[in-house]
Amino acid sequence: MPPSARPLLAAAAVLCFWLLVAVAEAKVHHYEWDISYQLKSPDCFEKLAVTVNGEAPGPTIRATQGDTIVVAVHNKLETENTAIHWHGIRQIDTPWADGVAGVTQCPILPGETFTYKFVVDRPGTYLYHAHYGMQRVAGLNGMIVVTVPEGFVEPFSYDEEHTVLLGDWWHKSVYEQATGLSSNPFVFVTEPQSLLINGRGMFNCSLAPSGTCNASRPDCALPTLFTAVPGKTYLLRIGSLTSLSSLYFEMEGHPMMVVEADGHYVRPFAVRGLFIYSGETYSVLVKADQDPRRNYWAASHVVGRNPSQTPSGKAVVSYAFNGNNPWMPPPTEPRAGPAWNNTAIRVEQSRAIFAHPRFVEPMPARADRTLLLLNTQNRIDGHIKWTINGVSLMFPATPYLVAMKRGMKDAYEQRPPPDMYDHMSHDISAPAPTNGTVGSPVYRLALGSVVDVVLQNSNALNNKTETHPWHLHGHDFWVLGHGEGKFNPAADAWRLLNVRDPIMKNTVPLHPDGWTAVRFRADNPGVWLFHCHVEAHVFMGMGVVFEEGVERVGRLPSSIMGCGRSKGLH
User: From which residue to which does the signal peptide run (predicted)?
Assistant: First the structure.
């Protein structure tokens, strides 16, 4: 045996061992969830929110690698459909449980029950949220924590762990927002009124109509992030499910060591604050080493958009120490966030994330297919849409998975979408020169093939460029790199890519005036959405659909059918 093969065999042996341990000790976790509208005031302003068993955010799901999750979802919204996506869970052998209405299932009708059943195959920090229309904006979301099997030693240690779910919040209803986006003239959702930390925020009630806001409500009190014991080390599992905002999260006087991203261990690196985009998760280590006689601010700030209309989200890190009042606000003023339009420091963090040396997932040396995807904002039939290579995605009435598995070729667009755009002549600093089209095409990928995707940003119709966090369902991808300007595949752009120790993620930011390159293996039979995780943007068509090996998918449950051409099959 050549010496070079021994480390690979050892790594394979360790992997096989832990897979066997996970299978041998796997448990089944059952949940019963009532999805309903409830009056809530997470930021002191009372409005309807979509809740899980009366709560928003919903409960944190906790399991061990290899466990099975079973969630019976009872739709009690009365007049509204729903569906729930398990964000970051790859759904190996269960593509119908991905929870995307129009892609993997028909929506869950009012009064009906749908049961999701899937295996959590990888440890890490994940999310769940509504994936029907713009319902995520209304509060149906939560976190999933998957721990390693007993006996496995992670590449870091800590005393306790806590979850931190970041969000943004509007006082307008989802219906008002969706109607504005679909209207002519176009009405944007505006900036959020509040930022939430673990579902809590504080709106200035003097700005609200009389009787709608009450700062004395118990559910809008200044929240405690966690209580620290001096000298202990804490693992914070941080996730963002904002609908629009990119964020900077920090804790006064407490730097963070980043150790995990989207379920993959990273080469540890220290940050004073963490830039985090919608759909991303990070685990960070925090040492409780500050003066324990006082408390400290935790805060989230909007970046990438002008935050003048959205005050920072605030919470308190309190110290458990004799003589310290854990309910006392910190004696200092909360810090202001970094300059909201400083893209360079955000790109710097993106480029600082590498796979942990002991957990580098071997990446294929080259791709079988390359997709160069340009996002543009277009005016189509008088309506403003987002397009990818000129196509604005609209889900068909029959879910892609059902239509493709059952050979319903007239249920979705048969013409394939373009792999490339005219990168030689297109000016990314100018709005799109063409109107584009609305459609439901599919990128059909050879099962097992390796695919490179280069996401290219460009100016919107207002001649500004934005941050777009892109999320891939059913897979993790290697992040090859981030660049400024226009990616030129024929020039030196490939030299900028990291092929040695790239981190694997399921969500990655596409920064303003730049490009992001990723690589993934199309090895999970099914139909999978790849889209911008800004809720208004995907609603306006910023996404694509991948199909791979759908003929290898097992028998589809009849419970995912019943809409479009699958009526009568439910």
Answer: 1-26
Is omega for the bond preceding 149 within 30 degrees of 0, making it cis?
A: no
Q: CA-CA distance, 249 to 301, in Å (whole number)?
A: 7
38 phi, psi to nearest 5 deg: -140, 145
Count other Cβ atoms within 10 Å, centred on residue 168. Answer: 25
pTM exceeds 0.85, yes or no: yes
Bridge partners of residue 116, in order along the sequence: 71
List the structure tokens of 395.
Answer: 């889900």
Q: Where in the chain is the domain with CATH 2.60.40.420?
A: 28-147, 160-352, 369-566
CB distance 149 to 120 below 8 Å: no
Residue of 85, 94, 1 whose CA lies nearest to 555: 94
DSSP three-state, residue 306:
coil
Residue 353 Cα distances to 257, 261, 300, 519, angstroms: 12, 9, 21, 16
What would the CATH number be for the domain defined by 28-147?
2.60.40.420
Of the chain, the end-to-end C-alpha distance in Å amounts to 55
At position 221, the amino acid (one-letter code) is: A
Contact 378, 537 (CB under 8 A): no
Domain 160-352: state its class. Answer: mainly beta
What are the DSSP E strand ranges found in 369-421?
A: 369-380, 383-388, 391-393
Give, in order, the Cα–Cα distances in Å from 60 to each of 187, 260, 262, 484: 35, 18, 16, 38
- d(C-alpha 58, C-alpha 129), whole Å: 9
Residue 12 has pLDDT above 90, yes or no: no
Q: Using CA atoms, how far apart are residues 38 and 53, in angstroms rounded to an integer? A: 10
CA dist., res. 26 & res. 108, Å (int): 29
SS (H, E, C) 334-361: CCCCCCCCCHHHHHHHHHCCEECHHHCC
**Which CATH architecture group holds 369-566?**
Sandwich (2.60)
**Residue 5 banded pLDDT, cuts 50, 70, 90:** very low
Q: Which residues contact 462 (CB under 8 A, 6 or more apart)?
A: none
Residues forming beta bridges with residue 119, ordered by sequence position: 68
Q: How far apart are alpha carbons 59 and 489 in whole angstroms?
A: 45
User: If DSSP states are collapsed to H, E and C, what string results for 486-501?
Assistant: CCCCCCCHHHHCCCCC
> 43 vs 128, 206, 243, 265, 295, CA distance in Å?
22, 13, 16, 34, 22
Q: What CA–CA distance (Å, rounded) separates 283 from 7?
A: 28
Is the pLDDT at 24 greater than 90? The verdict is: no
Among candidate residues 161, 170, 226, the one with its CA nearest the CA of residue 196:
170
- Tracing tokens 């979301």 back to the chain, one arrives at 141
